[in-house]
Design goal:
The complex is a heterodimer of chains A (about 110) and B (about 110). Chain A has no helices and 11 strands. Chain A is mostly beta strands and about 110 residues long. Classes of the chains: A mainly beta (about 110), B mainly beta (about 110).
């Protein structure tokens, strides 16, 4: 079974731009969660999607948004990029919500200049 | 507010020595606690969860509600245990995880 895939793997943007990151969960998984990982703050929960609906949201500004498609693939969008948005963005999928095992993708490294 | 604290950023032990990675949490309800591990050039993966009370790769962790701790232990460290370890808490509603900042474990041969 293929693992969680994230595209692109690396991205460089400038302040003020917007970016869209993509996550394809493991086949059959319906829950997708997004995390931001930075050296200072560690892993911070952004949001979770299940059945195309956002179920949980972390404490991030409205510039961070996401969506999930009917095939469970998910995208997250960050508008009006700031330098502090530079981070590794991780996606994790699980079979259902609240199943114990989340499978993480390799991440997308976003650099904002 | 929920918080997970891993007080040690770096931890070095000799091969064969016992190892303990500390994790403390604050949460008003009954949390679920997990340990995740990330080996070099690999993805973050689940190591163990307190509910199952299992031992994985020789590691165990006991939830101590009185001390609000969930320390990870292994009696005899191996070189292949060198990795980044994250303690995580899941709230009792939803599927939101709160991660600690991680402890980098190095096992010296």
């Amino acid at each position: 079974k293929a693992g969680v895939t994230q595209t692109p793997r690396y991205l460089i943007k400038t302040r003020g731009q917007q970016v869209t990151l993509s996550c394809s969960p493991i086949s059959g998984h319906r829950s997708v969660s997004w995390y931001q990982q930075t050296p200072g703050q560690g892993l911070q929960f952004l949001f979770e999607y299940f059945s195309e609906t956002q179920r949980n949201k972390g404490n991030f500004p409205g510039r961070f948004s996401g969506r999930q498609f009917s095939n469970s693939r998910s995208e997250m969008n960050v508008s009006t990029l700031e330098l502090g948005d530079s981070a590794l963005y991780l996606c994790a999928s699980s079979l259902m919500m609240r199943t114990d095992t989340q499978y993480f993708g390799p991440g997308t490294r976003l650099t904002v200049l | 507010a929920q918080r997970v604290t891993q007080p040690e950023k770096l931890l070095s032990v000799f091969k064969g020595a016992p190892v303990e990675l500390k994790c403390n949490y604050s949460y008003s309800g009954s949390p679920e606690l997990f340990w995740y591990v990330q080996y070099s050039r690999q993805r973050l993966q689940l190591l163990l969860r307190h509910i199952s009370r299992e031992s994985i790769k020789g590691f165990t962790a006991d939830l101590n509600k009185g001390e609000t701790s969930f320390h990870l232990k292994k009696p005899f460290a191996q070189e292949e245990d060198s990795a980044m370890y994250y303690c995580a808490l899941r709230a009792n509603t939803g599927n939101q995880f709160y991660f600690g900042t991680g402890t980098s474990l190095t096992v010296i041969p």
